[in-house]
């Protein structure tokens, strides 16, 4: 009986932790700032990459794990030049964010999350850990939702498709 209850509990948890394949409407409508301080909706950012796979890196300048991952990220970018790269910062300070982009020479398109993880986009991510990587396919569907390492097997698998 105990085994059956444990199995049932495991299955319930497994199905309740289903990873989304589409962005929620609230996430799509979330506002971000560009490097030129223009406001843009996340939906617009995605539309700029229609027909192309993109890697989204959710990070912050104050995050030691994020900073440590940058050399690996640069190697990943060299190995995968066909991808689009979108960086979403959870920083609270706009100036610190811009300085970090220059200091670490991060190549890609950069956006500042208006309210960090305390935003509709942050709620959609349902995460309290960064860096966080999402891989979006050519149709705009989420292939990888919750990777914390670039060498995650899900990323490797999704890139081969």
Describe this structure in words.
By secondary structure, the chain is α/β, with parallel strands linked by helices. It is built from seven helices and seven strands. The protein has helices at residues 2-16, 25-29, 42-47, 64-79, 94-104, 120-125, 153-159, and strands at residues 31-33, 39-41, 54-59, 84-89, 109-113, 132-136, 142-147. It has a seven-stranded mixed β-sheet. Strand 1 (31-33) and strand 2 (39-41) form a beta hairpin. The protein is globular and about 40 Å long. It starts with a helix and ends with a helix.
Question: Brief description of this entry?
Answer:
It contains 7 helices and 7 strands; from the N terminus they run H-H-E-E-H-E-H-E-H-E-H-E-E-H.
Low-confidence stretches: 4-16
Mean pLDDT: 88
The count of DSSP E runs of length 2 or more, i.e. the number of strands, is 7
User: What overall geometry do the principal axes of the alpha carbons give?
Assistant: globular
Topology:
Layout: H1 2-16, H2 25-29, E1 31-33, E2 39-41, H3 42-47, E3 54-59, H4 64-79, E4 84-89, H5 94-104, E5 109-113, H6 120-125, E6 132-136, E7 142-147, H7 153-159
Parallel strand pairs: 3-4, 4-5
Antiparallel strand pairs: 1-2, 1-5, 3-6, 6-7
């Amino acid at each position: 009986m105990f085994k059956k209850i444990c199995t049932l509990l495991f299955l319930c948890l497994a199905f309740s932790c289903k990873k989304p394949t589409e962005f929620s409407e609230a996430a799509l409508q979330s506002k971000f700032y560009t490097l030129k301080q223009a406001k843009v909706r996340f939906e617009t950012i995605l539309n700029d990459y229609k027909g192309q796979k993109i890697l989204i890196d959710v990070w912050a300048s104050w995050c030691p794990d994020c900073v440590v991952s940058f050399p690996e990220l640069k190697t990943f970018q060299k190995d995968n030049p066909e991808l689009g790269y979108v960086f979403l910062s959870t920083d609270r300070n706009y100036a610190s964010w811009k300085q970090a982009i220059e200091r670490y020479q991060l190549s890609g398109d950069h956006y500042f999350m208006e309210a960090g993880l305390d935003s509709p986009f942050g709620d959609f991510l349902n995460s309290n850990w960064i860096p966080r990587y999402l891989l979006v396919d050519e149709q705009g569907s989420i292939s990888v939702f919750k990777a914390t390492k670039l060498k995650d097997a899900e990323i490797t698998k999704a890139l081969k498709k």
